[in-house]
Amino acid sequence: MDRAITNSIIRFILLWTLQVFILRQFVWGWGGQIYLQVHAYPLFILLLPLRTSRLLVLTLAFALGLAIDWFSETLGMHAAALVFTAFLRAPILALLEPREKYALNAAPTKVSQNDAWFFRYAGLLMLAHLFFYFSVEAFTFVYLKAIVLKTIVSWVASMGFILALVYIFNPKA
């Protein structure tokens, strides 16, 4: 478990740094609207060990979201979206739980589960995260078409980036 804690601390710092100093610069859009934003920081919540308490997951999500908001000048949008993602984590894990149950000290990675399981898990949580983030950004469903378009475009880019990170670094815990 000590290794999992160390890995999580390192992952927190690296994903925060990546999001704040690099990915924040990569935005794309047209007509005065930004439609593509790459969000890699939810990977921290996605890769926390399965037996992490829900309260701790929510607290860590709030801390990471607030740290990103501080440097992105987004007034709590990242914190709100990441706490929402952390809140949905347990029900999504229950929904995707295999018949043989999760191993006692397993982490939700492609190594401990499988590629298809990880894609479904990450895909569902990232879709929820991005939809919530862009809904908070618009603060009204009048722009539902723009929210959905931003969500889809950013989901494809974010999932591509997250899957690349997972395949390159191959986290086990």
Description of the molecule:
- This protein has 173 residues and is mostly helical.
- The chain has helices at 2-22, 43-46, 54-72, 77-95, 115-138, 144-169; strands spanning 27-30, 33-37.
- A two-stranded antiparallel sheet has the order 1-2.
- The termini are close together.
- The mean pLDDT is 90.
Question: Can you lay out the helices and strands and say which pair or pack?
Answer:
Elements: H1 2-22, E1 27-30, E2 33-37, H2 43-46, H3 54-72, H4 77-95, H5 115-138, H6 144-169
Antiparallel strand pairs: 1-2
Gist of the model:
The protein is mostly helical and 173 residues long.
Provide key terms for this protein.
5% strand; globular; mainly alpha; 173 residues; single chain; Arp2/3 complex 21 kDa subunit ARPC3
| CATH topology description | Arp2/3 complex 21 kDa subunit ARPC3
* Biggest beta-sheet profile: 2 strands, antiparallel
Which shape, going by the Cα principal axes? globular
Q: Kindly state the mean pLDDT as a whole number?
A: 90
Distance between the termini: 9 Å
Regarding quaternary structure, what we see is single chain
CATH architecture: Orthogonal Bundle
List low-pLDDT spans. none
SS class: mainly alpha
Percentage of helical residues?
55-70%
